[in-house]
Amino acid sequence: MQTETENVEMVVVDAVVAHQHLAGPLLPILHQIQSELRHIPGSALNYIAKALNLSRAEVHGVVSYYHSFTTKPHGKTVIEVCRAESCQAVGGRKIEQRFKDALGLDFGETSSDGNVTLESVYCLGNCACSPSVRVGENIYGRITESGVNAIVDKAISQLAKSKELNQ
Amino acid sequence: MNVRVYVPQDSTALSVGADDVAQKLAKQDVAEHSIDVIRNGSRGLFWLEPLVEVETERGRVAYGPVTVEDIDDLIQSGMLSGKQGHPLALGLTEEIPFLKNQQRLTFKRAGITRPTSIEDYQAHQGFIGLTRALSMSPQECVDEIKDSGLRGRGGAAFPTGIKWQTVLSAEADQKYIVCNADEGDSGTFADRLQMEADPYALIEGMIIAGFAVGADKGYIYLREEYPHSYTVLKEAISIAKHHKFLGAAINGSAFDFDIEVRLGAKSYVCGEETALLNSLEGKRGVVRAKPPLPALEGLFAKPTVVNNVLSLSTVPTIFANGADSYAEFGMGRSRGTMPFQLAGNLKQTGLVELAFGVTVDELINEFGAGSRSGRPLKAAQLGGPLGTYLPPSQWKTQMDYEALAEINAVLGHGGVVAFDDTVDMGEQARFAMEFCVVESCGKCTPCRIGSVRGVETIDKIRANENRQDNINLLHSLCSTMVNGSLCAMGGMTPFPVQSALEHFAEDFDRVESSSQKIVPTLAKSRT
Q1: Which residue of A has its CA nearest to B224?
Q2: Min Cα separation B527/chain A (Å)
Q3: Which candidate from B47, B373, B385 shows the least CB-CB separation from A128?
């Protein structure tokens, strides 16, 4: 069986090899690692830096700059609640609070079982059907306070399903 | 009988259940009809999504907003023959006033065609502009854009033709076209709709731009928050390559051009062109000092055209119909049409493409039909999170770059977000500063530190602490940020704050009761 360290190494090497030929490959590399490992492990920085002829500090600087990249693992599902003005204009602040209450998490926090992370997002471009939230690749619009639990439940039940499939 | 039924698949339609509606329709077993479900782009009449259209002899007939539960009823009431008995029936789509009263040039195909069907695109004037451009000289192409009067639709409104001229005139072994698809302004979604409903228009616009300035490589810098746009663009690019509209010897000419889509990583500042270029290069999305202009030293220090999605997507129309026909629309120095976007607390939200000159009031009260909540409207924010809040007394202003500048407002990317009378403008002012704390790139002090101090000072004002002194301090801080910041992030963050202070002073006058006392916390900024 593969150890976790080996898996991390493999993902990092794959991401670098897949994008190294591009002009300015760092963001595509980091996106792939973030998507597969749900974070950018500190151990990846040296390898990426060496492969791209950058300093470790430069890579670290990029990782820490962008909200998409995290140094601690994100949950298996990320729920992003829009905090921007169009959503605010139709009760978005209450929706934010409902999500926090339903999950028992603040923005930027991950549940202790590592399943769900709650994040804020500044606009999903769905402003004509505000308030909006994104779960993974899906965007939900016209969210009502009473609809929040259904979205959370669906996100969690999908996780359970994918777990069953993997077993 | 075969009936064609259209169900949109842009992000907004999907966000309110369009996929479920399409699936249910496809499974319908109706004796006299066989249903052919077609996934079109959206018309941008978003408050009606999912907007189902049925093709009839008279044209397409619309029903919306349709949920899965409505479908049986709709079919029973004769939807498949275009009958109008059902409460969700809207008549002919093109006759819906919200759409009928628009002047669609850039968005003429939105919702009509299947987004990634290159056959549909070509059947609706697609690549006619490119064919004409390829028969002209690069200088003639640049002149065509200059004559059209097109100005950057991203927000800065810089004349597109001048930008192209600078790149064309620059001597270099490599030049680039970069499409700014980092549409971060709240209340805006026109770029997204364009890319998801009519991606080939953007592709065609980029090819023409490349030919005009002598660039053979284009990048679309797309925000990560648009996963569906990413899928559509990648598919469209791959199909365009297959049909020889991208790659070597485009459309049988001697011109080569290729496009790559790159994802951003959630940074609002990367919508600023120099930060965007840094990000594309794989660096922190920090703003560069200008000069040098990106047109001379842009991506990888090469001459680069950086244009917004809408600017580039308008280029094919200008070439297909001629610069003069485009310039006939608009007023003063704002030529052509502008895709305005109605969002927030409005009954009718969506995309409204019109010639410059429509008033804020017409957009909000006629197209938007007033508030969604039924309460009186109190403010409208124009031009995104860095835009001014306008009270109804200023809504007679025309949507035109210069007319708005006269009242210290900006048109930006064309977003209009309406708020009803429950909004607390003190809270909105605080949010503007807080957003700047979260999104400042950190390069210049007025933006990085000023925004933090701005939140603190607004908290003190709202807690009634040395009120007048702190209001004076906030004014002074705003003026420092406006005059001392490197880019629009810090330079415009004060706009919503100052306008809230000016027009809604009473909202800063509330003495907070202990139960509502603001806990001065800040969202996390960059590390």
Answers
A1: A68
A2: 6
A3: B47
Distance separating the N- and C-terminal Cα atoms of chain A = 16
Identify from A55, A123, A143 which residue to disrupt to test chain B contact, counting B C-beta atoms within 10 A and taking the largest count: A123
Class of the CATH-defined domain B118-327: alpha beta
Pick from B189, B267, B300: which is nearest to A125 by CB?
B189
Residues B294-323 have pLDDT tens digits of: 999 999 999 999 999 999 999 999 999 999
CATH of residue A92: 3.40.30.10
> DSSP of B115-153, one letter per residue?
TT-HHHHHHTTTTHHHHHHHTS-HHHHHHHHHHHT-B-T
CATH class of B425-516: mainly alpha
**Do the beta carbons of residue B336 and residue B238 sit within 8 Å?**
no
Q: How confident is the model at residue A160 (pLDDT cuts 50, 70, 90)?
A: confident
Q: Which residue of A has its CA nearest to B379?
A: A89
**Token couple for B100:** 């009928």
- DSSP label of B1: -
CATH code linked to domain B330-420: 3.10.20.600
Percent of chain B with pLDDT over 70: 97
Each residue's pLDDT tens digit, A3-12: 788 899 999 9
Cα nearest neighbour of A58 on chain B: B283
Quote the minimal CA–CA distance from A72 to chain B in Å.
14
Phi, psi of B308 (to 5 degrees): -70, 160
Q: Do B419 and A52 touch (CB under 8 A)?
A: no
- Distance, in Å, from the CA atom of B236 to the CA atom of B255, rounded to the nearest integer, reads 20
Q: Render pLDDT for B236-263 as a digit per residue (tens, 0 to 9).
A: 999 999 999 999 999 889 999 999 999 9
Residues of A in contact with B349 (CB under 8 A): 127-129
Q: Which of B10, B12, B302, B373 should one mutate to test binding to chain A, selecting the residue with the greatest count of A CBs within 10 A?
A: B12
Question: With b meaning 16 or more CB within 10 Å and e meaning fewer, what string describes A43-57?
Answer: ebbebbbebbebeee
Instruction: Please state, in angstroms and rounded to a whole number, the distance separating the CA atoms of residues B375 and B377.
Output: 6
Give CA–CA dist B18/B342, Å, rounded. 21
